[in-house]
Amino acid sequence: MQHRLKPVGLEFIAAAPGLRALVEEWRLAPVTATRTRVQWTFAAGAAAPLRLALRHGRRGLDRSFTTAVTNLDRLLAGKDAS
């Protein structure tokens, strides 16, 4: 049985050159008794060069987010996070 994702955090940030606004949302949903689906969404209001960099860096952001969540899962499970 899948559950709807529920927001767990909403944060507004703007502290980088060219960045006017950044909002991120985290949603967690239980998948099984031992698994949780994590969804991270963010939107940025930025100058054109930064928007271009974010667009082209999407795969790297996805990869780093997946790695970070995997490492957190391992850490919480008591396994080596390296």
UniProtKB/TrEMBL annotation:
This is Polyketide cyclase / dehydrase and lipid transport.
